[in-house]
Amino acid sequence: MTVTYQFDGTMTGLLSCVFRAFEFKDFDARVTADGYSQTALFDNDWVNVVSNDEHAQRVWQGLKQKVSSSSLKRFYYTFLSEQAVAYQHLFNFCCYVFRSSIAVDRNYGHPDVLALSQWTKQVGREKHRMEAFVRFKKAKDGLFIALVKPDFNVLPLIERHFKARYQDQKWLIYDEQRNYGIYYDLEQVHQVKMDARALDTSQAAGFSQSFSIELDDEEALYDQLWKDYFRSVNIQARRNMKLHIQYVPKRYWRYMNEKILNAKNEQD
């Protein structure tokens, strides 16, 4: 009977699963971060693996010795996908690497090595789109706020970009789906958590119904100026919605002031 490892969804937890697999020779184990999974209902051998910093660090240091820095990056990107199948590929990848006497992290003929490359492309694409399409709105207190719902957990990947680009203003990018954000205080970027629904202020145009802020008085003017600019440079005779949606998928329109205004017309 194949053993199933349950972990807490953290990188430390996943690496702790790898450590235990080698301790008990459970190289064919299944891993899950979804609590008491459906597969576990049919398993007599189901183990809750507690996150252990020391064990995780030993596994990570071992990976550093066995694989390239680009492979470590792919490992991290794949983990940020937060997908159950990706977690399994990461576990299998570790077992494959540590059980091999030669470097195998670029053997793309192996399904788990290939999977890490494919997940990295998907997460990387979401990262670049967030960097391109995120729009800020200025609040009364001068804080610039952007709300996002990325498919993957890309906030740790985009903080360097926004810190470099907006060094002279305080900003917050908040992931509504994962209930945490990254906040820049003009010196450092911090991870923050808060209850977005607790804010009792006026609704911001284009924002989620569960998150409202009180905008700066000039924000509506800036919004309108940008929309007027977008309308003036738009050439209707060269409109190609199929190509446009290919480069700017509709699920990103909620972040863009100009799309909020024109969404109904462009969907027609």
Describe this structure in words.
Helices cover 45% and strands 11% of the residues. It is globular. Residues 198-212 and 263-268 have low confidence and may be disordered. It is built from nine helices and eight strands. The protein has helices spanning 11-24, 53-66, 69-79, 84-98, 111-133, 155-165, 219-233, 241-247, 257-267, and strands at 4-6, 30-32, 46-48, 137-138, 144-148, 171-175, 180-184, 189-192. It has three domains: 4-125, no CATH class; 134-216, no CATH class; 218-268, no CATH class.
Number of helices: 9
Shape: globular
Q: Tell me the series of helices and strands, N- to C-terminal.
A: EHEEHHHHEEHEEEHHH
The N- and C-terminal alpha carbons lie at a distance of 55 Å
Domain count, please report it: 3
Based on secondary structure, the structural category is: alpha/beta
Mean pLDDT: 82
